[in-house]
Amino acid sequence: MSNFLVEFPEMPNKQFREFKKGVDASYKDFAREWGDFIDAMFEPLLKMLVFFEKTLIATPWPIFMIVLLGLTYWGSRSYKLVIGTFLAFVFIGYFRMWDETMSTIAIILTSVIMSVVIGLPTGIAMSRSDRTQSIVTPILDIMQTMPPFVYLIPIVMLMGIGKIPGLIAVVIYAIPPLIRLTNLGIREVDKEALEAADAFGATKKQKLYQVQLPLALPTIFAGINQTIMMALAMVIIASMIGVKGLGQPVLQSIYNQYFTKGVLYGLAIVIVAIVFDRVSQSYGQRIQKHRSGKIV
Amino acid sequence: MSEAKIQIKSLYKIFGKNPSAAMEYVKNGVGKDELLEKHNHVLGLKDINLDIQSESIQVVMGLSGSGKSTLIRHINRLIEPTDGSVTVDGDEVLKMNEEQLRSFRRSKTAMVFQRFALLPHKTVLQNTIFGLHIQNIAEEDAKKSALRWIERVGLSGYEDKYPQHLSGGMQQRVGLARALTNDGDILLMDEAFSALDPLIRKDMQDILLELQDELHKTVVFITHDLDEALKIGDRIAILKDGIMDQEGIPAEILLNPKTKYVKDFVEDVNRARVIKAKHIMNEINGQDLNGAMPINQDEFIDRFIDKVIAEKPDNLLIQDKDKKNVGFLSTQKLSEILKR
User: Fold this and answer.
1) Torsion angle of C-alpha atoms B117, B119, B123, B128, degrees rounded to 10
2) What residue of B is the nearest CA neighbor of A287?
3) Percent of chain B with pLDDT over 90
4) How far is B300 from chain A (nearest CA, A)?
5) Closest residue by Cα to residue B175 from B135, B187, B185, B186
6) Best mutation site among A195, A200, A211 for testing chain B: the one with the most B CBs within 10 Å?
7) What is the assigned CATH class of domain A45-60+97-288?
């Protein structure tokens, strides 16, 4: 009796071993059965990622620089940011980190595209039904709190080590803020604006495209910005399962205690993050400029 | 009288988890406070009956929480009633399916909102055109019509501005232009001018009256301001706690308030500016009207009171616009009405 109170009545060791073995075995069977099929399913994604990577690396650096600075200016309309971006990428190039940076940008690009393609419709669906919201929210909670290492295990078991499993891990880690903020943005749309649309006889689709999405856009954009940041943070962990880029050298430096190399590549990640963040944020603010302003 | 344009019959609205159960209590005479306290339901509207005539301005007045905004939203069914009927041109609005309701809203009604409810990402022109845009009307026609109304409400030159760049009064002009561009017979105005400064509000009231002279729409106008109600209403309905206390022409409400609530409401009103000669005249029944002062029946008291004081006649002879005698009014009665 006293023992019962001191120690929690736990599952007997033997049964627990059986349980683990059973789950492992059935997952392995599933992986064997479906692994190839799932690989094939993600084939187009792999092609896109490889295409981005090859294109970025093959592009002569001056051209890349011009395009990047052009995009920076188009997004932010700020010369300060253009000069900052230029100096940052000079640093990256001069310290021999150019190719890794290109690989990283390629995977960020691919995972952000994938996040938007999956996240936006999910967020919209969530905003339209409380039931969907109550189902999706706990899933997002799991995605955000589960240590990435844990879900790396089944992904690797299923698809092995490589780009696609890395990409999937990045998307799982980076997509929740986009879904949450899309949902929030649409739910926060002014009730009177929606009522007006109803009063004038708008269909559901017209309300979505002409009222809800445009009014939620700043919030959705904050979500995309968060997704970019989280994807960059995940790049190091994803490098453990074979994603090329800035993460791999950092990982090497940890194993071998290369201090300088670690710091340099770490800085490169920070630089890419800051540039992406500032440009996407100022773009987000610029597209909603008409929302504020002086009264005539 | 011709059939009313909008007929509201024994309309009930109860907010809460189980409105139909709460209906029973309300029909058995449970009041708003008791319903909330004991049964946890909010009584929005109770047994509203209202006929709104075509081409008239019907004002619905009440304090906040009286259910006036709830009532107007039943006409285009932005709110589903708990019980009752709303017909427009003889069609039951509450029986329409989604498609019919949408086309009803598109073709018959247009609404102006208290807080304007403009779309901040669209320009003045795009906002004005919104109603036609969602009906997929050809861009050119829609634009022509929108520009005409933008000009009519005095916003020419602001077509490409965003709402945030406009003052409140100008934003509500856009709201009005948007509603008029839709060209329905019925204009629903939910406290449309309440958020505006007094001077701008007066401007907007004048614009509305001027437009109404020309367009003859059926306007349902919600307000909490009695002066506004008296100024623009052909008829006024007074709501309190979801119940209609009184309905009638402005003069009738001023002269014969039915409940204490209405009485308190109208106590401080300057009657001379609201009551017309015809509202208070008596029938001619062989009285001696020699020397009576002729007055047009549609004159407000304050328009002829100076003349009455100067000439001191015993009686006023009330005439219609063709100078035909329609009634008389003793100066004594006039003075009593003004003193009351």
Assistant:
1) -50
2) B121
3) 55
4) 38
5) B187
6) A200
7) mainly alpha
Res A290: pLDDT: 61
Give per-residue pLDDT as tens, A231-279: 999 988 888 888 889 999 999 999 999 999 999 999 999 999 999 988 8
pLDDT of the residue at B82:
93
User: Considering only A141-145, B240-244, B284-288, B306-310, which range has the smallest mean pLDDT?
Assistant: B284-288
Q: What is the spatial order of strands in the sheet that B293-296 belongs to?
A: B293-296, B315-319, B325-330
Q: Which residue of B has its CA nearest to A191?
A: B117
Q: Is B213 exposed, middle or buried (0-12, 13-18, 19+ CB in 10 A)?
A: exposed
Q: How far apart are CA A157 and CA A172, in angstroms?
A: 16
Cα–chain center distance at B324: 32
| Average pLDDT of every residue of chain A | 91
Say if residues B8 and B86 touch (Cβ distance below 8 Å).
yes
B48 phi and psi, to 5 degrees? Answer: -85, 125
**Residue A206 Cα, gap to closest chain B Cα (Å):** 7
Q: Is the pLDDT of residue A75 over 90?
A: no
ipTM of the prediction: 0.84
B91-92 and B325-330 strand pairing: unpaired
What are the residues of chain B with a beta carbon less than 8 Å away from any beta carbon of chain A?
76, 78, 102-106, 109-111, 113-121, 130-131, 133-135, 158, 161-162, 164-167, 178, 182, 188
Residue of chain A whose Cα is closest to the Cα of B104: A201
Instruction: Map out the domains of chain B with their CATH numbers.
Output: 54-73+95-270 (3.40.50.300), 273-339 (3.90.1280.20)
Instruction: With cut-offs at 50, 70 and 90, classify the pLDDT of residue B286.
Output: confident
Whether A199 and B130 lie within 8 Å, measured CB to CB? no
What CA–CA distance (Å, rounded) separates A60 from A63? 6
The whole-number pLDDT of residue B2 equals: 59
Helix H segments across chain A?
Answer: 2-6, 13-41, 43-58, 61-76, 79-94, 98-128, 130-145, 148-159, 163-187, 191-199, 204-207, 213-238, 247-256, 259-286
What six digits make up the tokens of B267? 């106590």
Please indicate whether, in this complex, the C-beta atoms of A296 and B165 are within 8 angstroms of each other: yes
> Cβ contact (<8 Å) for A196 and B111?
yes
Nearest to A200 among B105, B115, B120 (CB): B105
Model confidence pTM above 0.90:
no
Q: How far apart are CA B24 and CA A155, in angstroms?
A: 60
Interchain contact, A210 vs B119, CB within 8 Å? yes
Residues in B touching A193 (Cβ below 8 Å): 117-119
Radius of gyration of chain B from Cα atoms? 23
* Binary contact (B134, A206; C-beta < 8 A): yes
Q: Which residue has the tokens 């929740």?
A: A176
DSSP codes of every residue in B171-235: HHHHHHHHHHHHT-SEEEEESTTTTS-HHHHHHHHHHHHHHHHHH--EEEEEES-HHHHHHH-SE
The predicted structure's pLDDT at residue A101: 95
Domain spans of chain A? 12-41, 45-60+97-288
Distance from CA of B296 to the nearest CA of A (A): 42
A215 to B76: CB separation less than 8 angstroms, yes or no: no
- Tell me the chain B residues in contact with residue A286 when contact means C-beta distances shorter than 8 Å: none
* DSSP H or E segment with residue B106: helix B98-107
Q: Which of A200, A214, A217 sits opposite B130 (nearest CB)?
A: A200
